[in-house]
Amino acid sequence: MLDPNKVKLAIAPIAWTNDDMPELGKENTFEQCVSEMALAGFTGSEVGGKYPTDPKVLKKAIDLRGIQICNAWCSTFFTSQPEEYTIEAFIKQRDFLYEAGARMIGCSEQGNSIQGTTKSVFDEKPVYTEEEWVKVTQGMNKLADLAAEKGMKLSYHHHMGTGVQTPAEIDKFLEMTNDNVLLLFDAGHLVYSEGNQEAAVAVLKKHIGRVGHVHLKDVRMEKVNEVKAKKLSFLEGVRMGTFTVPGDGDTDFTPIFEILEQNNYEGWMVVEAEQDPAIANPFEYALKARAYIKEKTGL
Ligand SMILES: O=C1C[C@@H](O)[C@H](O)[C@@H](O)C1=O
Ligand SMILES: [Co+2]
């Protein structure tokens, strides 16, 4: 059983309104989203595009519902822009998150990512040159130190369609960064990339000491295989239903929860499952995920 004093449960707003494709769920309001998160039994949320940009306004609305902000996605552009460009944007994001009550910032290098493009996510993902590896990892080291200035932590989100996607790339990223650069372990992206859950479990086991934040994302393997066979893009896959909540897809989260428990993981576990809200009602799927987590972990 996971310790409720150490592990808190959140859910991401991307199931209500998808910032990667804002037309998905454009009718869903911020208030509906955070109210349904609370009603489904979650006490945390990441930040979405419809959330108030004034941290005081945001904090008041979520405090009313017993929700805390636990993290927000932060795109970095070390491979495509001068370093100052990312650093300036990071400091703004860090200070906003701090005021909103979060102590974690999840970064992902987007300089040459294809996740938001029409390119085939399996065939055209970037592979970093040695020079790019140095830019990304040294950049992250600097951002982690900037996070620490405010008593915050940085975790890196490995992601489909980016240069840090496969287990070997995650190994190299962690070898080339300092220990205060943590890993945001997203189960869905690893199962998607490798085609089996054993690879995801192995990454978690190997790097549990660096894991600072967890995304509980499940996949429908049949849809992932279709994306691969038809050379589709990441976003085409999302529209088709590649992702869903834990308990609804093909991943058995039992070994994942076991590793977190055995290693005294302390932090947030965030249900994150973008799919078309017109097909998969976000509140219904939030309840489904919550019930599955309770059954598997007791939380
Ligand atoms: O953490 C995430 C944030 C999203 O914007 C992204 O595309 C999604 O797949 C994800 O895992
Ligand atoms: Co994620």
Automatic annotation (TrEMBL):
Keywords: Cobalt, Lyase, Manganese. Transmembrane segments: none annotated. The keyword Lyase applies. Residues 38-294 form the Xylose isomerase-like TIM barrel domain. GO terms for biological process: inositol catabolic process. It is an enzyme of class 4 (lyase). It comes from the Bacteria. One of its GO terms (molecular function) is manganese ion binding. This is Inosose dehydratase. The lineage of its organism: Bacteria, Bacillati, Bacillota, Clostridia, Eubacteriales.
